[in-house]
């Protein structure tokens, strides 16, 4: 999830776990602890863009990392004179919970979270929430603000934190239900259109859990479509994209290519963009693909010009958006 969501959630958990012992410092410490796994951004200062894709949400988002860091951090916190006294055991439990929640929540996005590093490179992706979903984050954001500005003596503090987290948890559950409904529609549509597929995934479009991007892998490429939980049409129309793996023959052994293939989990196509050969990761969707089925993809990596690959993922997320496209997006969510 986005950094602000982690900060707000960390503050709410801090109030519940350590508010009685640490006062309002529990909010700050919870916010910092919840953000610790994202220290992997430091690797971007020396990694190539392709290597940085695997470094982000890599080892610092693994179970091993939170196990080996929680206790040393707890020892430091328990002996830090700036902090009120709390046992090492309680500190360890508090920090473990904050770090685990960060890892757990990040796995609901499309990016992939390396829970099992360094023993396995497999990345966990539940494809259930967009990386920044205001409806998921708003309750914990409000809860964190209330906890910050209201005094410690206010009797409702813990209830605010509980309710804020509960509302977000209900929204996540609702997203999972919608995902299951979309999956049923996808399977029916693929069967009706006699599309042979190896695997598929569904992932939400920006900021909502109603309109979903669908990607199904065939023998030579991918079938891509969009489905809203409010759609009245019985089946999903798909656009086919050839994988074009043959375009990689001359450079397939390059380290960047291997990193990109591993990062994309095999969901990629090769194409040209602005006259340059690019690697497209399909998990991040298309630029306004619900309007134009042949639209370019959000994630694209210049294979022949690696120096052009700054801000790799962010650059395409909201490219070509304007007022008209935003209104079109809202209508498409509602099945119009």
What can you see in these coordinates?
It contains 10 helices and 7 strands. The radius of gyration is 22 Å and the shape is globular. The chain is α+β, with helices and mostly antiparallel strands and 336 residues long. It has helices at residues 3-22, 25-35, 49-55, 63-79, 88-106, 134-149, 157-192, 255-264, 314-317, 323-333; strands at 199-204, 211-217, 221-228, 239-242, 268-273, 276-286, 297-302. Helices cover 45% and strands 14% of the residues. The protein has a 4-stranded antiparallel β-sheet, with helices on one face. A 3-stranded antiparallel β-sheet has the order 5-6-7. The protein has 2 domains: 3-174, no CATH class; 193-333, no CATH class. The two termini are 29 Å apart. Strand 5 (268-273) and strand 6 form a beta hairpin.
Please summarize what this structure is.
The chain has 336 residues and is α+β, with helices and mostly antiparallel strands. It has helices at 3-22, 25-35, 49-55, 63-79, 88-106, 134-149, 157-192, 255-264, 314-317, 323-333, and strands at 199-204, 211-217, 221-228, 239-242, 268-273, 276-286, 297-302.
